[in-house]
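Have a think about this chain, tokens included, and walk me through the fold.
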Amino acid sequence: MPTKRESDDIAQLVIDKLEKSSQLKKFVQDAVTEAMSAIITRLEMQEGRIMELEGRIKAQESEVQLHKEAEKKSVEKMAVLEQRIDDLEQKSRSRNIRIQGVPEVKDEDPEEAVIDIGRRMGVHVTSSDFVRCHRLGPLVDKGARRSSPRQLLVEFSSLRTRARIMGARSKLKGSKIFVNDDLTPTRQKLIFNKSPSKSWSADAISFLLESLVEKTCLAHIRAICVKDEPLTVELTLPTGESVVRLMLNKGFAELLADCEDLDDGTLDDASTITDGTSTPAFSRAMSEDGEDGAYYNPEIPRSVVNVLKGVTEAGEMEEGGAMMAAPGQAFHPTMLPDVGVYFWVTVSHLDEPDLLYIQYTQANEDDPDPIIAQAAQHALESEELVAELASMAPHLPFLLNPQPDMPCCAQYSVDERWYRAEIVEVVRKDIIMCHVRFVDYGTVEWLSLNSIRQLPAQFLELPLQCRRCRLTGIQVPAKLPPKTPLQSGTHWPAAAIKRVVDMVSNRVLVAVVEEDGPIPMISLYESTTQALPIYYSLILEGLADGPANSEELLVNAAFKEVGLILSAREKTVTGDTGATGVASADVSKGDVLPGVSKVAPSGMEE
């Protein structure tokens, strides 16, 4: 057992050990704290340097972006300058042509060769018409053979001579001699770019240049647009002719095996028989003035084909701020007087013997009937409207997508004036044709897209100046002699509509509404003294059937006319002149309408 001294020594030793351990712990803690402080300081310094470097990088990136934008602008400016240079170069070639396929002969005179080609085209050319005329390319070595003769480059002294040559070049078809524009290398590369498997003929290229360049076309998108790929479209000329069909018909192209059939349609014969002034116009030619000139201006834009130039979608704002009429919008119908009221009319158009269009005539703004008075005011406004359309129409946008029942502005082929119209039908065959109705007259006509324009919506406000009506008391004859000629598209005999045209053309008549409705039922008389409508003679001639009691009506009408004659004589004796003009249904039957001549509206001329 240790002594007390030993025990104290051991305790003191333990205490010393513990003190040393505490000091060590404190030393370690201090060392760690100092090290961490140094590390944090270094990290803060590194973070500062990183932020500084990031700032420098961002500044450099901004500088690089500025350089890229400056480079992009430089490239764009360069493209514009190249385009201008190309335009100027092309302009310098405006009087030039290139002729290929002319055989080369020894000691030839190029001018004589061109003069001879002119004779073949029916164009008189002399040496004084040339500024220069020579072959392009170097001569081949003696004994060597050239695959094809060198082209002839011709510069004429005037654009007129060049235009005559270019306009007659189609007469060289089949001769293996081709007359083309003298295009710059850039435009040659753009237009004559050929695929590895197929190459377009010079005739095809010439046809496209003459038909499409700087012309307004309609583009029918035939496939979904894919990025960086050409848009697949079918182009239609202002005449309504499909470019694809024209190329197929001329043998310049053929349909691909997997190509869908082109839209097809047929033009039925016009069902309307009038006096011959509404003949469908299937071949309206383009004007040879202005941008649709007879020859191609070689100063073409880089896009080659100017598609939809000056065309706005129906319903959009035109450049001048006018809103165009859109599909679904309609004209306001003209109102007729109440049932039984007599009023003056002329017949402007016939669809069938019993289906016609009437217009107010001799209407007065002071008429006691408010509807007739309003019609007189509208007639005056209509004259102003026609005059305004005449000045506006040539500058209105083309109708981009004609649809049935769409309001439009159309040019009537008889007087070549522009009127309000409505699309009745659209058909596609070799060309797009629209069956339009001139809504203020009822006349119908087949027109190409070149004769149709969009209609400003403001022209929808004036009510129509004619109303479609049906005659009462006659119907299609149930029995006709064999081989009786019929009106196209109906069961009426052709002679019936001719008789009705003779009855109503260029005549002022009296109308009365017998039954109101979307197509009012009316009767037409020469005067209020007439007991039966003027068209009842069709029943006697076997050209129409009347009501079941038509014979009884005819007998009663005869007695009635006798009574009217006696009544008129009695009034003459007594000096009672009665009312004058056409008023309400209670007007005296003895009042005869004064015969006032009036030129019939378009579609009813003799």
About this structure: Residues 194-198, 263-315, 577-606 have pLDDT under 50 and may be disordered.
